[in-house]
Each structure stands twice: as structure tokens, then as C-alpha cells.
């Protein structure tokens, strides 16, 4: 199933405390964002990559794209203050029937998971990669526990998230019109009662967010490059 992917890459990496866009941090000498882009560059079903970036980083992104032969990057667009705005700006340039949204900070997605996701999106409208929650989750106010959430129905949702482009565009337009800000893209479909289904992924598909994630990332990279640990 052919698709295009919007990759938000315009964050500041505040939680990483790296003093720069965390996507430029190198794992074994290669910037995180290059690992992410390579997955889609190498996927024959990917028809194009739309990258949302901080305009101040445009020259660096162009250098990375040229140095790594990333020919599928069809558009660099301006990121926004929030992830949702960065995605929205990228979405304006999506032309394929199926569009994926994938965090630049998740370099370990696999082609097999992408293929399952795009098929599910074409059948249902929206599909997300997720894994069962392992910890017990509690709701609290001012660190006073209010309730323990039943774990059997909880999923930790990742990206890519895949959609029929027409549905995603209308969900984004409605959210923008109503000033709704979600933490992921599928929530914009859920709020307008569009179907979203889960494709079970794996725990390697981490979002590199804080310093600790860099240790996990090095281990996952080693596993991917050399087999089991
Ligand atoms: N305004 C924003 C915020 C985030 N992102 C991107 O969305 C993905 C997921 O966001 P997150 O992990 O939160 O990245 P940051 O916003 O950079 O991290 P932080 O919240 O710690 O600053 C990342 O690839 C990030 O570059 C983006 O394009 N535009
Ligand atoms: C979209 C996402 O990766 C799904 O888990 C997550 O919500 C992004 O959150 P962030 O705070 O913008 O990194």
C-alpha cells in the first residue's frame, strides 16, 4: 500500500536537556533523525517524506539529506509551536490516499509494522501502533491518588499513525477550527467519531525523549545491527 509520511522534527528537545534539537544527537556516529528517515527512504511503498522543521535548522537538514542520499524528502515545511501545528503544516503537502505521521524521535520503527498499519488504515480510516501498558496507571490530583485505571484495556500508543488522508485532513481542520490540541493525531479522529484501530507493535519503538532513552536506544541499535544482545 503506497503512502506518504509526515515527520514532525521541529521540537526543541526540552526534556532531553541537550541544549539542541535532540534529533541531531548521534547514535554510533549517525544523527537520530537520519535513522528515522532511512526507514522510509528504504521502504518501496513510501512515495514521499514531508519534514516539518525549525527554519533555523534548514541548512543543517539540507546537509543531512544530501549527505545521506535521502531522495524521498519531497518538502521541508515550517514546524509550529506545538507538534500538532508542525504536522498540520506538513499535511498540506500530502497527496497520496494514505498518509502516515511519524515522530522523528522514533528511529526504530520497522517496515513490517508500517505495512500492517497502512493496510489497517485503508480499511478503517485510522490505525495506530501501540503496545500493552506494563505499569499500573493511576489518576491523581496534586499527587493524591484518585483512581487506579483498569490496565487490561490500556495501550501505550506510539507512531507511526496511519490514515486515509481525507479523513485526517478534515479531522485536523475541525480541531484547528475548534482550538483543540491533542497529544497525538488519532485523537483528532476519535473526537469526531472516526474509527481508529490498534496494530500491536513492540517495545523497541521508543520515542527518544529523556537522557535515559539514549541508553535504551544504543542497546536497541546494537540488537538491530548485531542480532540479540
Ligand atoms: N512543536 C513541535 C514539537 C515536537 N515536534 C516533533 O514531534 C516529535 C515528538 O515530540 P517530542 O518527543 O515531544 O519532541 P520535543 O517537543 O522536541 O521534546 P520536548 O517536549 O521534550 O521539548 C519529535 O520528533 C519532535 O521533533 C515538532 O515537530 N514540533
Ligand atoms: C504522538 C506520540 O508519540 C504518541 O505516543 C506522543 O503523544 C507524542 O508526545 P510528545 O510529548 O509530543 O512527544
TrEMBL record:
Swiss-Prot/TrEMBL site (Positions MEP for the nucleophilic attack) positions: 151, 207
Gene: ispD
Protein family membership: Belongs to the IspD/TarI cytidylyltransferase family. IspD subfamily.
Function: Catalyzes the formation of 4-diphosphocytidyl-2-C-methyl-D-erythritol from CTP and 2-C-methyl-D-erythritol 4-phosphate (MEP).
Keywords for the protein's UniProt record, in alphabetical order: Isoprene biosynthesis, Nucleotidyltransferase, Transferase
Annotated site location: Transition state stabilizer: 15, 22
Gene Ontology molecular function: any one: 2-C-methyl-D-erythritol 4-phosphate cytidylyltransferase activity
GO biological process, one term: isopentenyl diphosphate biosynthetic process, methylerythritol 4-phosphate pathway
EC number of this enzyme: 2.7.7.60
Record has ATP-binding as a keyword: no
Originating organism: Peribacillus simplex
Catalytic reactions of this protein: 2-C-methyl-D-erythritol 4-phosphate + CTP + H(+) = 4-CDP-2-C-methyl-D-erythritol + diphosphate
Enzyme class name: transferase
Name of this protein: 2-C-methyl-D-erythritol 4-phosphate cytidylyltransferase
Pathway: Isoprenoid biosynthesis; isopentenyl diphosphate biosynthesis via DXP pathway; isopentenyl diphosphate from 1-deoxy-D-xylulose 5-phosphate: step 2/6
Source organism, top-level taxon: Bacteria
Taxonomic lineage: Bacteria, Bacillati, Bacillota, Bacilli, Bacillales
UniProt-listed NCBIfam families: ispD (TIGR00453)
One Pfam family in the UniProt entry: IspD
Entry keyword Nucleotidyltransferase: yes
Amino acid at each position: 500500500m503506497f503512502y506518504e509520511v509526515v515527520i514532525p522534527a521541529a521540537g526543541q528537545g526540552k526534556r532531553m536537556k541537550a541544549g539542541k534539537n535532540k534529533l541531531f544527537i548521534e547514535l554510533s556516529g549517525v544523527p537520530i533523525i537520519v535513522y528515522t528517515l532511512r526507514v522510509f527512504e528504504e521502504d518501496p511503498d513510501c512515495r514521499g517524506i514531508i519534514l516539518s522543521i525549525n527554519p533555523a535548522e534548514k541548512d543543517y537538514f539540507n546537509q543531512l539529506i544530501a549527505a545521506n542520499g535521502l531522495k524521498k524528502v519531497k518538502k521541508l515545511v515550517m514546524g509550529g509551536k506545538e507538534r500538532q501545528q508542525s504536522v498540520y503544516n506538513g499535511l498540506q503537502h500530502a497527496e497520496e490516499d494514505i498518509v502516515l505521521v511519524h515522530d522523528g524521535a522514533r528511529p526504530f520503527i520497522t517496515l513490517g509494522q508500517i505495512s500492517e498499519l497502512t493496510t489497517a488504515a485503508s480499511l478503517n480510516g485510522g490505525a495506530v501502533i501501540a503496545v500493552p501498558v506494563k505499569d499500573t496507571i493511576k489518576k491523581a490530583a496534586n499527587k493524591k491518588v484518585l483512581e487506579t485505571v483498569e490496565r487490561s484495556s490500556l495501550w501505550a500508543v506510539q507512531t507511526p499513525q496511519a490514515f486515509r488522508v481525507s479523513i485526517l485532513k478534515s479531522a485536523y481542520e475541525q480541531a484547528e477550527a475548534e482550538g483543540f490540541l491533542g497529544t497525538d493525531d488519532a485523537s483528532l479522529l476519535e473526537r469526531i467519531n472516526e474509527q481508529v484501530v490498534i496494530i500491536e507493535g513492540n517495545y523497541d519503538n521508543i520515542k527518544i525523549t529523556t537522557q535515559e532513552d539514549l541508553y535504551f536506544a544504543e542497546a536497541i541499535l546494537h540488537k538491530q545491527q548485531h542480532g540479540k544482545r
